[in-house]
Amino acid sequence: MNLHKLLLERDVAGKKLRVGLIGAGKFGSMFLAQARRTPGLHILGIADLDPARARAALARVGWPAEQIAGRSASEAVEHGTTWIGDDAKALIAHPALDVVIDATGHPAAGITHALAAVQHGKHIVMVNVEADVLAGPLLAAKARKAGLVYSLAYGDQPALIAEQVDWARACGFDVVAAGKGTKYLPAYHHSTPDTVWPHYGLTPEQARQGGMNPQMFNSFLDGTKSAIEMAAVANATGLTPAPDGLSFPPCGVDDLPRVLRPRAEGGQLHHTGQVEVISSLERDGKPVFRDLRWGVYVVFEAPSDYVKRCFAEYGLVTDPTGRYAALYKPYHLIGLELGISVASAGLRGEATGAPTGFRGDAVATAKRDLKEGEVLDGEGGFTVWGKLMPASDSLRIGALPIGLAHHVKLRRAVKTGASLTWSDVVVDEASEAVRIRREMEAQFREQVAAA
C-alpha cells in the first residue's frame, strides 16, 4: 500500500523508473494515458511494428508533442523524452531501461521479448497472456533464476484474480474457487469471425467503422480467452481446472457462494480449489440477475463455527450453510491499472502474479470437422477454439496448445470437438516458440514422473 510513496521518492530523487513498452494497441494506449500522470515513471521508449500507430496512440491519449522526441533511446534518456521505433530488441537491450512491458498479444513475440529481457537483466510485465500460457511457467523460472521479476499484468483479469486468491490465503481462508465472469452460451464455441457481430449487438458495417478485429473479438466469445486466462490463473495460484475444463455456470454475484461450492455440498464445482468462469447469460439466453460479466471473484470457506458466525455478524452473503462466502470486483480497468505491475516489479521486486507451475493449458479444439491439409487459423478463427485442460492431461495426450495453432497444416482429419495433438499438425521445430514450449513440456513431464 505504499507504491505511490515509493514512486514519489524516486521522482523527487530524479531517479525515475524507466519503462519500455512493446505494442501500442488498446492495452498499451490505456497504460500510456495514465503513465504520464504517474510520478516516478519515465516511458523511455515505445516499440511497435508501426511507429506511426504508436505516435497516433500517444496523441489520442493526450501526450504533448514535445514529449514524443528523440532519434534514439539514449537521446530520450538524456532529455527525459520518449523514443518511438520498431526495434523492440534494441529497446530491451538499452542499459538505462528497468522494466519491459510486452503488450503485443502475439505468443511467439512475447516469448522472444521475455527471453531478451532476461538476457539483458530487465524485469518483464507480460500483458501478453497468450505467451504466458504457452510458455510462462518456463519463462518465469528463467527470470527468477536471473534475479528478475516476471509478472502478470495488473488490470487484466488473471492478475486481479491472483490478488484475490492471495488476499484470501493471507487471511487464513481456504480458497474454494476463483475466476471471472463472461458472456457465454454453449453455441459460442462454434462461432467464427463471420458470425461474431450479432452476438455483440453489432452489424458488420458498425464493427468495420469502429476498426474492430472480428477474429480478436471472436476469441472472447468462443471460449478461447476464458481458457487462456484461467490457465494463467491456475499456473499462478495452484488452483486447478476441472477434468472437462470450464463449465461456465450461469451465476450472479449474490449466488457465488451457493453455485461455486463442491457438488457434494450442493454446488457445481468438480473439486475444491478450482478455476471457473461464470456466465452472464442463463442457458436460455436471458440475462443473469446482477451478473459479473466484467469482473472477477474468489470463493472461500469459513474454517470454524466461530468464523462462520463472523460471516453472519458482518453481513457477508453466504451459501445456505453459512460456510461459503465470496469477494468480487465488478470491473477490471485493463491498461489503466497496469502501472501497479510496473511499480511493483521495479520498486519492490515483486510480481502481481506469476506462474509457479504448469497446471492448466489452453488446447486447440476443432470447431468443425477439419480435413487433412487444412491450415489452422488460430485463436478466434474458423477452425479451432481454445479449451481449458489440466496440464497433466495435456502432457499425457501431447495436446497442441492454442498459441501454436496458427498457420500450421493438418496431417490428418480431425472431428468436431476433438483436441488436436502435436502429431496432428506439421510443426516448424526450428521455431523459437516451438522450441521453448517443447523445453517447458519436457521439464514438467519430468517433474510429474518424479512426483
Blueprint (SSEs and pairs):
Elements (H helix, E strand, L loop, with lengths): L2 H10 L4 E6 L3 H10 L5 E7 L3 H10 L12 H7 L3 E3 L2 H6 L5 E4 L4 H13 L3 E4 L2 H17 L4 E3 L4 H14 L3 E9 L21 H6 L4 H8 L2 H14 L18 H4 L14 E6 L16 E6 L3 H9 L10 E6 L9 H10 L11 E7 L8 E3 L6 E7 H7 L8 E5 L14 E2 L5 H19 L1
Parallel strand pairs: 1-2, 1-4, 2-3, 4-5, 5-6, 7-8
Antiparallel strand pairs: 7-9, 9-10, 11-13, 12-14, 14-15
Helix pairs in contact: 6-7, 7-11, 7-16, 8-11
Q: Strand order across the biggest sheet?
A: 3-2-1-4-5-6
CATH topology of the largest domain, what is it called? Rossmann fold
Which structural category do the helix and sheet elements fall into? alpha/beta
Q: Helix tally?
A: 16
Helix percent reads 25-40%
Domains, number: 3
What percent of residues are in strands? 15-25%
- What's the CATH first level of the largest domain? Alpha Beta
CATH architecture of the largest domain: 3-Layer(aba) Sandwich
Shape, principal axes of CA atoms: globular
The N- and C-terminal alpha carbons lie at a distance of 38 Å
What integer value in Å does the Rg equal?
22 Å
Low-confidence sequence ranges: none
Q: Mean of residue pLDDT?
A: 95
Largest sheet: 6 strands, parallel
* Total strands: 15
Relevant CATH superfamily of the largest domain: NAD(P)-binding Rossmann-like Domain
Keywords summarizing the entry:
Rossmann fold; Type Iii Antifreeze Protein Isoform Hplc 12; six-stranded parallel β-sheet; four-stranded mixed β-sheet; 15 strands; 36% helix; globular
